[in-house]
Write a structure and sequence with these properties.
By secondary structure, this protein is mostly beta strands. The chain has strands at 12-16, 19-23, 47-51, 55-59. It is globular.
Length: 78
């Protein structure tokens, strides 16, 4: 399995509507922080998450968070 690529060293603030989303865990997606299928062959799969209500969330882009898919501040230590 390959290691994730750091897509950015800050979270992505997104206003998300209720629904199902797929967070890019590999860092290769050109549609960060969401999956575009670029993970194929890496052994890293996207993380599915569901929003129950519309709100702003901060999604991890360094791919090192312990609270996937949400930012936990880990990017500050990289």
């Amino acid at each position: 399995m390959k290691k994730p690529i750091i897509a950015a060293r800050q979270p992505a603030a997104k206003e998300l509507k209720p629904g199902v989303y797929f967070w890019c865990a590999c860092g290769r997606s050109s549609n960060q922080p969401f999956c575009d299928g670029s993970h194929k062959g890496t052994g890293i799969n996207p993380v599915e998450f569901k929003m129950e209500e519309q709100k702003t969330v901060y999604l991890c882009q360094c791919k090192q968070t312990k609270n996937k898919p949400f930012c936990d501040g880990t990017h500050r230590t990289l």
